[in-house]
Amino acid sequence: MSFVYFLKLLHKKLLWLLVIPIAMAISIFYFTRHEVKVYSSESVIYTGIASGYSLSGNNKADFFGTSNAFDNLLSLINSRETKEEVAINLLAGHLQLKKHDPSVLSWDSFEKLRGLIPDSIRNRLVRSDQANTVLALKSYLSGEEGNPIYSLINSDNPVYSISAMDNIKALRINSSDLIKISYSTNDAAICKHTLELLEECFMRKHRLLKEGQSESVVTYFENETRNAFNRLNDAEQRFLDFNRENDIINYYEQTKAVAVEKENLDVQKHNMQMDKMANTKSLDLVNSNLKGKLYQSEYGTAVLRDRESLSDVYSKMATDNLIGRNDPDHQQKADSLEKLSASLENRLSRSVDNLYSETLTPNGIPTKNVLDEWLRTSLNVEQSKARLTVMADRKKEFEEQYRKYAPLGATLKKIERQINVSEQEYLELLHGLNMAKLTQQNNELTTKLNIVDEPYLPLKANPSKRMVQVILGFVVGFVLVLAVILARALVDRSVQHPKNAHKLIKLPLLGVFPLLNMSEEYLSKARLRIVQQLLSRLDPEKIPTSIGIVSIQENEGKSTLLGMLSDELIRLGYTISILKTSGDEQTPEGNTEIVLREFRALDTLIFKPGSFPKMDHTILVCRANRIWGDLDNELLHLFTKTTGNKPLLILNGVEADFAEPYIGEVPKQRFFLRAYFKRIFRMQFGNKKNFTT
User: Fold this and answer.
1) 617-623 vs 648-654, strand pairing mode
2) Which of 165, 224, 468, 688 minimizes the number of CB atoms within 10 Å of its CB?
3) Strands, E assignment, 205-320
């Protein structure tokens, strides 16, 4: 479809393109004559989500986190529960009114409210203050379904229903921290009051939601921290009881001291054993020199007696030095034993001197020297025995301490490990508790929403959309009609255009003939074009010339074209014979120059070889408003095969828009602009009707 044809199609259907859209516009204008006025108010709230401050400093911008926070906030505003609570609070406030208050609602809204809620239910629900009235409404609403309050809240009431709250629009202003909330309704005071209730409701819900999340975390950490502290306290108490029961001050220092003392004791014992062995050997040697030289004198008895006494004193001194050091009377006992030992040593020395002066050894060694050596060695042997005896007792004590401390170490290590684990757990939970409280305080600071622009009372109603609806109705009607026209034009499978005829029928085009409702001048021009084409194909030497006129179907215009051709040819001076035949041979008059034969429709004929008269030319007449199908092609093929003659095509009943390229422009008076734009669309620049100077 060309653009020119599109414009001509619009011009042809212009009446429909105007009547239906105008009718729709008038209908919309009529039915909206009682349009309700709508008032709008808005408010701006600062959230601080994207660029606000926290206890840890300035918040870092996080696109996804910020978008999620704004989505949550907007979803909270648009939630059903929020809208229902706003509607209930609004209704409770209006039910509290005992008389009309223009700052709360208009007179019309006040009268409508009286009709919505019966007086019996109003008296039953209204309390002394709005808070109790809201509780009564919620309790009544949650009762049986279908009660007046439930029906009102879930209806399409323009003020008190949840659907009315759908007019609340909340959106983020660009990429800022601001949220704009707007609301539209048919009452200016209600519009402002509804926004105020909405802000109060959703800001409270937002705060409780944030604080509830952090409160549950803080409670968890407080409970767990308390339990961890109790476990740590129990473990430390077990540690204290264990040390008290086992007389432990510092286990590791005590065990270290015991180990050092035992090692020193072992070294001392080893040295004492070596001294004893050496002194014993020396004493044996001295005894061998004194063998058989025992005197029964007084000096010998005194020496032996003093020796035994001195051995006992040395034993007591060694015991006191090793064990009794911590005894408060240690020093006094030590001094007494020292004095006693010195006295015994002096007495023993005098006894030995007396005995020495009387006796000599068998080897000629003076007895005094041998006895001195014997005395010294005997004293050393007795001292070593006493020390080793005390050392053995001391070693037993250390072995008992070892047996005591060995299992205590594992138990003490286990208790210390439990204390360490409990302490780490307590410190981690204490850190988590501190972080949770910090987050809780941070939420209390950052979740506080601030109202930047308070809702205002709209004094003027919103501009009416009535004219917009009227214009939109006209446009929609125009588009619908245009769509129908274009759809019909696009789905039309009829031949219509000569180019389509040539493509479908595949015959040479002799000419086109327009609809008969055109002007006579244009019809004459069409007849002239067909005769011109026909005469250009005739052989002047061939007389008479036989021309057959056929059509596939009946009522395709054969007779009309036959009469037109005969009239034009007679006017040009040709002798014409017109024969109507169904296939039988007929003889024309003798002086005929052109014979015109009209055949019946091909879909009614029987095709037999030799049954058709010989013709010089054949013209196929086809209606432009018909569909050319496979059957038409088959009949045309049989006719061509039988007659041996390929017809020329005349497309009959062509619309003027399609016929102009083959016949010429339709002669009529055109407005200057229309003619100018027509030349532009056809790219006919520089075309003149006559010579200009």
Assistant:
1) parallel
2) 688
3) none
Nearest 5°: the CA angle 154, 155, 161 is 70
Report if pTM > 0.85: no
Bridge partner list, 648: 619
Mean pLDDT of successive 10-residue stretches along the chain, which has 693 residues: 68 85 90 83 86 58 77 89 91 88 87 84 85 88 78 88 90 88 91 92 84 76 89 87 78 72 75 78 69 53 76 76 67 79 80 64 57 73 76 74 70 84 89 82 71 89 84 92 84 78 86 84 85 84 85 87 87 85 57 84 80 83 87 88 86 81 69 56 55 48
b/e sequence 316-340, b meaning 16+ C-beta within 10 Å: bbbbbebeeeeeeeeeeebeebeeb
Neighbours of 86 (CB within 10 A): 27
Q: Encoding tokens for residue 182?
A: 């707007």
Residues 6+ apart with CB under 8 A from 657: 4, 5, 8
How many angstroms separate the Cα of 629 from the Cα of each of 330, 490, 501, 607, 638?
145, 18, 12, 20, 15
Alpha-carbon distances of 353 from 380, 383, 497, 613, rounded to whole Å: 19, 22, 171, 195
d(CA 616, CA 94): 100
Structure tokens at 445: 């600071």
- Evaluate whether 219 touches 66 at the Cβ level (below 8 Å): no
The DSSP letter of residue 366 is B
Task: Give, for 510, the enclosing helix (H) or strand (E).
Answer: strand 509-514
Sheet order of strands, 576-581 included: 509-514, 648-654, 617-623, 545-550, 594-599, 576-581
Cα–Cα distance measured from residue 190 to residue 511, given in angstroms and rounded to the nearest whole number:
77
